[in-house]
Design goal:
The longest helix has about 40 residues, at about 5-45. This protein has about 190 residues and is mostly helical. The chain has helices at about 5-45, 60-80, 90, 95-130, 135-140, 160-190.
Length: about 190
């Protein structure tokens, strides 16, 4: 009695690849940040010596932006594999149909949260860029045009870089959350 079970399997293959690619990208970002942090720390140890080594300029700005991007890249993989926190001690005592309903309800709530996060990141991205005329900005939900581009203090990196990458991860998290609602609804209704 499930809803388009064969289509769900085809979509699941695509969603799995997307979530895995995002997770690998997030892992690459975190690995690069770890190497940069080690180099910066080693460089700080040689500041007093006259050998030309020092900390990586703007290292904390890069860690701040990169960590946010990585977190949003990992959320899709976690949601697809039902990796969020559950209370198994309680749910193991319930019937299969009750557990299926709880999973469906949890996936629905996570979708709502993912949607709000993606929406607010989109709005934040719109507040960081000075592109487009006001009618176009209103149409795509960007709000009023800021007077200037905001940049980080040391590197002068525009804030919109991290907003755009974080929004991309949050948008994919929203899509994958919608897929998990479909999957859990089919589990609730029974697959046939």
């Amino acid at each position: 009695m499930g809803i388009a079970v064969s289509a769900e399997k085809r979509v699941e293959r695509f969603v799995n690849r997307l979530a895995m690619a995002l997770a690998f990208f997030g892992g690459a970002v975190l690995t690069a940040l770890a190497f940069m942090t080690v180099l910066s720390t080693i460089g700080r140890a040689f500041v007093g010596m006259q050998i030309g080594l020092g900390p990586v300029p703007g290292d904390f700005e890069l860690v701040e932006a990169g960590t946010a991007v990585a977190v949003f890249c990992f959320m899709s993989w976690c949601q697809l594999n039902q990796g969020h926190v559950t209370v198994d001690i309680f749910t193991n005592q319930l019937s299969d149909s009750t557990n299926a309903f709880i999973i469906f309800l949890g996936n629905t709530l996570i979708f709502i949260v993912a949607f709000v996060i993606a929406w607010r990141l989109w709005m934040g991205f719109g507040e960081q860029v000075i592109w487009f005329s006001q009618p176009i900005r209103d149409m795509i939900g960007f709000g009023y045009k800021p007077f200037t581009n905001n940049t980080t203090y040391i590197l002068g990196m525009p804030f919109w870089y991290s907003y755009l990458l974080s929004f991309t991860g949050a948008f994919c998290f929203c899509l994958i959350s919608a897929f998990t609602i479909w999957r859990s609804l089919n589990d609730l209704l029974g697959r046939k």
